[in-house]
Amino acid sequence: MNDNVQLHTPIAEWGSLKIRALIEKYPASKSVLFKHTGAACFGCPAADEESVELGIRVHGAVADDFYQDLAEVLSSQQSEHPEE
Question: What is the model's pTM?
């Protein structure tokens, strides 16, 4: 199994990650964050302290849609780069 992109990471873990940690662990998440929050989370000082779940709520995004898009982006990334 690919250790860099763990698609079996529980959604609950994604939500509890700090935004910066999500971006570092899953760089492709930047596009999903931007799509759903409209904010440049990756440059925000709060990204070090704010959880993904809190960021979703604060910016009025729909959590289920965010997590579904995140799973799709990460799945697509893994299929494009299976050896990473």
Answer: 0.74
